[in-house]
Write a structure and sequence with these properties.
The protein is α+β, with helices and mostly antiparallel strands. It is 24% helix and 31% strand. It has one domain: Translation Initiation Factor IF3, CATH 3.30.110.40. Strands 1-2-4-3 form a four-stranded mixed β-sheet, covered by helices on one side.
Protein backbone atom coordinates (compact mmCIF):
# COMPACT_ATOMS: atom_id res chain seq x y z
CA UNK A 1 0.00 0.00 0.00
CA UNK A 2 1.15 3.55 -0.66
CA UNK A 3 1.95 5.03 2.73
CA UNK A 4 2.24 8.69 1.74
CA UNK A 5 -1.31 9.00 0.40
CA UNK A 6 -3.56 11.07 2.63
CA UNK A 7 -7.10 12.31 2.17
CA UNK A 8 -8.05 9.47 -0.20
CA UNK A 9 -11.28 8.88 -2.09
CA UNK A 10 -12.03 5.30 -3.23
CA UNK A 11 -13.77 4.45 -6.51
CA UNK A 12 -14.71 0.79 -6.96
CA UNK A 13 -15.45 0.52 -10.69
CA UNK A 14 -15.34 -3.25 -11.10
CA UNK A 15 -19.02 -3.37 -12.05
CA UNK A 16 -18.97 -0.26 -14.27
CA UNK A 17 -17.38 -2.04 -17.25
CA UNK A 18 -17.62 0.52 -20.08
CA UNK A 19 -18.50 3.65 -18.15
CA UNK A 20 -15.71 3.58 -15.61
CA UNK A 21 -13.15 5.52 -17.68
CA UNK A 22 -15.21 8.69 -18.00
CA UNK A 23 -16.33 8.49 -14.37
CA UNK A 24 -12.73 8.30 -13.18
CA UNK A 25 -11.62 11.14 -15.48
CA UNK A 26 -14.40 13.41 -14.19
CA UNK A 27 -13.57 12.54 -10.58
CA UNK A 28 -9.85 13.13 -11.19
CA UNK A 29 -10.67 16.58 -12.55
CA UNK A 30 -12.66 17.36 -9.41
CA UNK A 31 -9.89 16.11 -7.10
CA UNK A 32 -6.78 17.46 -8.82
CA UNK A 33 -4.58 19.29 -6.32
CA UNK A 34 -6.94 18.60 -3.41
CA UNK A 35 -7.31 14.87 -2.86
CA UNK A 36 -5.76 11.59 -3.90
CA UNK A 37 -7.87 8.63 -5.00
CA UNK A 38 -7.87 4.88 -5.42
CA UNK A 39 -9.47 3.05 -8.33
CA UNK A 40 -10.44 -0.56 -7.73
CA UNK A 41 -10.76 -2.56 -10.96
CA UNK A 42 -10.69 -6.20 -12.11
CA UNK A 43 -7.51 -5.54 -14.08
CA UNK A 44 -4.77 -2.93 -14.32
CA UNK A 45 -6.35 -0.19 -16.51
CA UNK A 46 -3.28 0.84 -18.50
CA UNK A 47 -5.09 3.30 -20.79
CA UNK A 48 -6.52 5.12 -17.76
CA UNK A 49 -3.10 5.16 -16.09
CA UNK A 50 -1.45 6.57 -19.23
CA UNK A 51 -4.16 9.22 -19.59
CA UNK A 52 -3.76 10.41 -16.00
CA UNK A 53 0.06 10.27 -16.11
CA UNK A 54 -0.05 12.74 -19.01
CA UNK A 55 -2.06 15.07 -16.77
CA UNK A 56 0.32 15.12 -13.85
CA UNK A 57 -0.96 12.25 -11.72
CA UNK A 58 1.41 9.63 -10.35
CA UNK A 59 0.32 6.12 -9.47
CA UNK A 60 1.10 2.84 -7.81
CA UNK A 61 -0.71 -0.40 -8.63
CA UNK A 62 -1.29 -3.11 -6.05
CA UNK A 63 -2.59 -6.50 -7.16
CA UNK A 64 -4.87 -7.74 -4.40
CA UNK A 65 -6.00 -10.89 -6.23
CA UNK A 66 -6.24 -12.11 -9.83
CA UNK A 67 -9.39 -10.05 -10.34
CA UNK A 68 -8.83 -7.12 -8.00
CA UNK A 69 -6.35 -4.31 -8.52
CA UNK A 70 -6.06 -1.13 -6.50
CA UNK A 71 -4.51 1.77 -8.36
CA UNK A 72 -3.44 4.66 -6.13
CA UNK A 73 -3.38 8.05 -7.88
CA UNK A 74 -1.64 10.98 -6.24
CA UNK A 75 0.15 14.24 -6.99
CA UNK A 76 3.64 15.11 -5.92
CA UNK A 77 4.36 18.63 -4.68
CA UNK A 78 5.71 19.45 -8.16
CA UNK A 79 2.51 18.35 -9.93
CA UNK A 80 -0.09 20.11 -7.79
CA UNK A 81 -0.48 23.03 -10.19
CA UNK A 82 -1.28 20.96 -13.29
CA UNK A 83 -4.90 21.10 -14.39
CA UNK A 84 -6.80 18.06 -15.69
CA UNK A 85 -8.78 18.93 -18.85
Amino acid sequence: MVEDIENVEVMDVREDSREYFSKVIIKAGELVGRRNFIVIQKYEPLSLIDFLLERGWQYKTEMISEDKYQIYFFHSQNNKNKILH
